[in-house]
Amino acid sequence: MESKRQQKVASLLQQELAAVFQRDLPHLFPGLPPGISLVRVSPDLGVARVYLSLLTLGKTDNTATEALVQDSAKIIRQALARRVGKQLRIVPDLVFFLDDSASYAAHMDQVFGDLHIPPAPSEGVPDASDEAGNIPKRPKLFADEDE
User: Fold this and answer.
1) Which of 39-43, 104-108, 138-142 has the lowest mean pLDDT?
2) Region of residue 124 (left: phi > 0; alpha: psi -120 to 50; beta: else)
3) With a threshold of 0.70, does the pTM exceed it?
4) What does the mean pLDDT of the chain come to?
5) 50 has which bridge partners?
6) H/E element holding 51?
7) Which parts of the chain fold into alpha helices (H)?
8) CATH number listed for the domain at residues 4-100
9) Buried b / exposed e across 81-104, counting CB within 10 Å, b at 16+?
10) Per-residue pLDDT tens digits for 30-53
11) Are 41 and 58 in contact (CB under 8 A)?
């Protein structure tokens, strides 16, 4: 469980990293800059795990973008330090991971859409009456119960 301090630092880093990707370093990323879906900070606030969601409009190579982000980690950390230098004593080391939950959700939607589930047999729901149409009496649960 994360402490309140970890949650606050993670939220600050998420906001500021989004601003770094969009405003300070847009030239690093051709097309759309990666989105930040989640930031987790270690208890000593020294390492931040950043989960990137790559919003691609077509089929592109996500590993190339991930490699570009990994290679630019030092530049990204320096740009982040300029933004949060007054709020944090030490800017955490950034470790980037791809967040593939959106593609996984799309894949699962496709799998569920491709399923063929036959309809239930329409035999009708059996009712509680017998062939003569007499409804059976409710059983007594207690000895002193009236009918």
Assistant:
1) 138-142
2) left
3) no
4) 82
5) 39, 96
6) strand 47-53
7) 4-19, 62-71, 73-84, 101-114
8) 3.30.300.20
9) eebbeeebeebbebebebbeeeee
10) 777 788 989 999 999 999 999 988
11) no
